[in-house]
């Protein structure tokens, strides 16, 4: 979707640039949507305008009140802020000089450490130094993974799973909200607005007594 029409249901692999068809996403983007990545506007920010239009349309149509719309707008702003922070982490590389210096310092420390320990530990200095350097290089490798947590490696954050989980939850909420609005029931309860819980229990009790 870089400066071209985005095909609903496709995702671009950043490493290969190839489009992968994802059928469950085909109904999430409007047909004819054009991406503006070539001009510096990410798709996520582009979609926030659709969400903002939906909030305004819902307020004008009376689907929810102004305080609810205000809370939705706050959550949308928080999402944009989180996206900006993730983008900063993703696009800010670690300086090459820092990585080289870090490896050199570890190698220098590993070369000097045996001479500092050999007088007191004799031959035991060899396995101790090996254990210490194994630990330090392991921490260095873990830090390298944590510096860039976004991608498709096994240790990276599974963003697709998180998005799919959020999509499933929102779909259920919207379905229940629509059902409650059309049928006049409270969400997740199954009784009409204003109906108390005692009436249902009384009806069930009378039915049970009648059966006896």
Describe the structure.
The protein has 212 residues and is mainly α. The protein is built from six helices and two strands. It has a two-stranded antiparallel sheet with strand order 1-2. Helix 1 runs antiparallel to helix 2 (66-91) and helix 3 packs antiparallel against helix 4 (125-147). The chain is elongated, with a radius of gyration of 29 Å. The N and C termini lie far apart (68 Å). Mean pLDDT is 76; it is low at 1-9 and 198-212.
Task: Give a quick rundown of the structure.
With 212 residues, the protein is mostly helical. It is 63% helix and 3% strand.
- Overall 3D geometry? elongated
Report the biggest beta sheet as strand number plus sense, adding barrel if it closes.
Answer: 2 strands, antiparallel
**Helix percentage range:** 55-70%
Number of helices: 6
- SSE pattern, N- to C-terminal: EEHHHHHH
Q: What amount of the residues lies in strands?
A: under 5%
Measured distance between first and last alpha carbons: 68 Å
Mean pLDDT: 76
Q: Which parts are unreliable, with pLDDT below 50 for 5 consecutive residues or more?
A: 1-9, 198-212
What is the count of β-strands?
Answer: 2
Q: Output the radius of gyration.
A: 29 Å
Secondary structure category: mainly alpha
| Spatial order of the strands forming the largest sheet | 1-2
